[in-house]
Amino acid sequence: MIVTSDHGYHMGEKEYIFKNTLWEESSRIPLIIHLPGTTKSAEICQHPVSLIDLYPTMNDICSLPNDPNAPGNGQPLDGYSLRPFLSGTHTDEWEGPEVALTAISSDIPREFYQPADIDNQHYSIRSERLALIFCATMVRRNCTIMNTIHTKWKNLANDPEYASTIKAMKEKLIAMVGLNL
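Request: output the structure for the sequence above.
Response:
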């Protein structure tokens, strides 16, 4: 059994209403997985994962086809099996990334049915403790890093204490998306 939802909805947090932001209230969602026949009590895993990991997880558990797109477009599926987390929070067995990626489109016009320019979109990568938010527009580029546990309002991007962490998270974002930061 899997219980989850789509993105969250702001109800006044950060003086914002609606959804489609990279803040925690919109991008973080519940994900509960229960395997039939297990009686172990629930453990909470704090490691960030993505919904794109659900198919590889079901494939791993239910022996679904590895390449469901073979007869169609032939493209391999992304994502990693969450099975290591289902028997406990064994992140050393996890083959996926250390961070979860969230992306939302900018309002920069583009041709209908054409992919948007990667460098002009908005992204967030989230670790267990921090979220690096990158907003790109034609007017400005902005990187924000927030401690997701304590200081959700404080931008830590210029805090010297976080300089090496920010650099490492930017490198992960570049590797995942191919941005030109």
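DSSP finds four helices and eight strands in the chain.
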